[in-house]
Batch of 2 targets.
Target 1
Amino acid sequence: MSDSGNRTSHIRLTSHPGTGAPVRFPVTWGKADPRERGPVIGSVTRPGDRNTIGSHGGSYSLYRALAVSSGALNPMQRPDLTNTSPVVQFGPYPQWGEPGKIVSLDPFGHMVAEVYRDLIAEGVDIRPTIAITKARLTVVELQQAIRDKRLKVDGDIVREQGDISVIKAAVDPVWHLPGIAARFDVSEDKLRRTLFEQTGGMYPELVTRPDLEVFLPPIGGQTLYIFGDPAAITDPKRRLTCRVHDECNGSDVFGSDICTCRPYLVHGIEECVKEAQAGGAGLIVYNRKEGRALGEVTKFLVYTPASGRRAATPPPNTSSAPNASPACRMPASSS
Ligand SMILES: [Zn+2]
């Protein structure tokens, strides 16, 4: 198969690789050594090298398609990974090689530029699925907490101006389909077929390529905010304060009064900062799945004012995710 380019006149069916030859870079999920595990290759620039279903960027792959279709972006464009190394070294840890332990992300996703340097130099299009950088947070409630003496300025974690030092990591989803199926206690066949059907047949390889076990789903990932020394997270002798928070754009960003997500989030950050100042670490895991994975349209439908008051009970048939609450936690006063 030609790797020469993505010609618009030529449709390349991903379900029919052509030669039937085994993939050039097999993935053996659950190996402790990333070289043994193999790189996750979801690039569309060299289709012959692919060993995954889907493509990089999660839901943003569709925006990329729009940019390519309009001629604004060269489909063969590759990211320049120069100076993109993580600002902090994470791992590897023994758990990364335990089969079944990690099934929805690539634990080596931040290390690919280093681990697969030779393959990338050869022209294999391997992309990071995790990026780690540093930032400072300015949160008005926490500046008030400083004025109220609940938080103290230490010049390191909380700085003079009231901003807070943080390490943040963006994590794209990388699904190991057999592992995901096991988590949901369904057969892999059924999982693949349902994913295929419920996306309107978006990824034929789900049902035609059982040899490809890794899927890059077009969904949001996670953002991690780490406070204090990141080494404390993996040190059992040091304390960790952690909040797992589902994205709630309405409250988290806009301060909408329909739920109490932002106060919970801000309180979580405050506790994380205190733990970091006490020698431990704080961790906010921010899941990019609005309304417990239902999306904002469903969420707003649930909360549409009816008869002069908000619907505290969601209408039936709105819960599409297993064990998911219909939307955010409601404040006590409105339930
Ligand atoms: Zn909310």
Target 2
Amino acid sequence: MLPTGLELLRLLRLLSCVTLVLLFQVSDAKRDLISACTTCQKITDNFSKGFERTAKQNFGGGNTAWEERKLSKYETSEIRLMEIVEDLCESSSFECNRMVEEHEEHFETWWFKRKTKHPDLHKWFCIETIKVCCPKGTFGLDCNDCVGGSETPCHGNGRCDGDGTRGGDGKCSCDNGYTGEFCLDCREGYYNEVRNDTFSLCTECHSSCKTCTGGTHQDCDECKDGWEEDDQEACVDVNECSKDPSSCNEDQYCLNTEGSYSCKACDKVCSGCTAAGPDKCQSCASGYQDTEGTCTVMDINFKCQVSILCRVGLHHL
Ligand SMILES: [Ca+2]
């Protein structure tokens, strides 16, 4: 008797699998539990895509009369299953192809016997049958609840390690602004807007606060660098530019900003300045003269008054 398409497919898979196993010799290697679940999730996602893709198909051309007789309805046929299973993995994905090969009979069982009662393939296959995943909000070999409970892992403020897989340790990596084992505490620079045993909302402090109890510059416990407390105990900007000596070099002027300051280059006509532009010089640079408060290019006759060149008449050149 001739082998069916599915049997041929199996044989090919087996051959490629044996080759790969020989190549890598990983038959008994302990698999990364989290990546096994990721692989399984990918397989069941691709199964759903394949299911949709084949939804409007039928046997079409190329099927033998034997197949037509044996498989009366494409929708629930082995042919359709085969077409879906063929595209579950990228050919280069060793883990995926191995998992499909190893558990191919489960797809048949589900397809012919379990699909109606257990329509969620991921749940039936990855969680309950081959046990590489856990329900959402649980982790580890026994699918224990994540910190904070399976409904709201990490109280909704973080990510539970191994969530939904048979791996991980269930500990929380808190989102930005949150800290602590349960992700209920606020990080420095954040304050609790709402807080109870199971819920916490941390909001960023005002930009002037290092730590705070509320959202304004008057709610700071401590001011950030570049800010100082005023008479009303609010954090206000330090004007670094009013300091003597200046915080900047001689050929720069100081520009005060909220929480900081910067040093900017003076105009090239200036020798020292208070702001940008040729009219903000403290004195004019060499070769420039003060003309009604603005430094301009010195005219040649004026230049001669201060130059030894005048005496030898070189300015006429
Ligand atoms: Ca400042």
